[in-house]
Amino acid sequence: MSKIVKLNPSKALVPQGSQGFQAPEEIAKAQLLSLVKVLEPIKEWGFIKPGALSLARREEAEKTMVALRELKDTAEKGRVALTKPLLDEKKRLDDLYKGFQSAVGVLDSHVWSLIKAARDQEAAIAQKAAEKIAKAAEKKGAVQFAEDVRAQAAEPPALAVLQEQTIVRGEVEGAPGLILLVKAVAKGEVPLAVLDFNQSAINQLIRGGMTLPGVKRVEETIAKRGR
């Protein structure tokens, strides 16, 4: 007959012979060793098959179940006692960094508003000057020139910074690639336009995420003046 152990959670969680500072992991190991010792005499219940328990041992089984649940609760209390201070400390550190990140975000938004205002002001000045030139051109009959001036002035001013830009294009992989491409066109899987060696058409399809047989996706990074 199994021996029913009356659990004492406070004693089960006390590492024996502990002195001075101990890392949480070491405390957890010591606690678990104590709990395993309490579990040892109950483990034999795991070998009893369902339906093989006699009525005479039912009360004992019920007490064993209570003991197991107390053991589980004791382990949970030990886990919470060790992890809560760590989680609280993590939260305090997170809050410290969040404050700094929030301040940087506010400043970033303000600087962007300054840049945007300057760009808008520059665009307004350019459009005003362009409109004057366009009207003068229209009086002389240069309508197309006037439209070009207005269109150019409508573009946002460029910022004096260099930015990386990825250019995607399609590249036919030699004769084998061309054969695959022709077969795909014959099956109606690919538009006929690509067989005209229209690089612009091929590039447009590749940029749109389409996979063309015999054509590989090529990405090249270049320096481009941003706006």
What does this structure look like?
The termini are far apart. By secondary structure, the protein is mainly α. The N terminus is likely disordered. It is built from 6 helices and 2 strands, in the order H-H-H-H-E-H-H-E. Strands 1-2 form a two-stranded antiparallel ribbon. Among the domains are: 88 residues; 64 residues, no CATH class. Helix 2 runs antiparallel to helix 3. It is elongated and about 110 Å long. It is 60% helix and 10% strand.
Annotation keywords:
6 helices, 2 strands, two-stranded antiparallel ribbon, 227 residues, elongated, mainly alpha
How would you sum up this structure in a few lines?
This protein has 227 residues and is mainly α. The chain contains six helices and two strands.
Draw up the topology in text.
Layout: H1 9-12, H2 24-39, H3 58-139, H4 143-154, E1 162-172, H5 174-186, H6 199-207, E2 215-225
Antiparallel strand pairs: 1-2
Strand content: 5-15%
Shape: elongated
- How much helicity do the residues have? 55-70%
Q: For the CA atoms, what is the radius of gyration?
A: 38 Å
Termini, distance in Å? 83 Å
Topology as H/E string? HHHHEHHE
Q: Counting H and I runs of at least 4 residues, what is the number of helices?
A: 6
The main pleated sheet reads as: 2 strands, antiparallel
List unreliable stretches of 5+ residues: 1-18
- Counting helices, strands and paired strands, the structural category is mainly alpha
What's the average pLDDT? 77
How many DSSP-defined strands? 2
Q: Numbering strands along the chain, what is their spatial order in the largest sheet?
A: 1-2
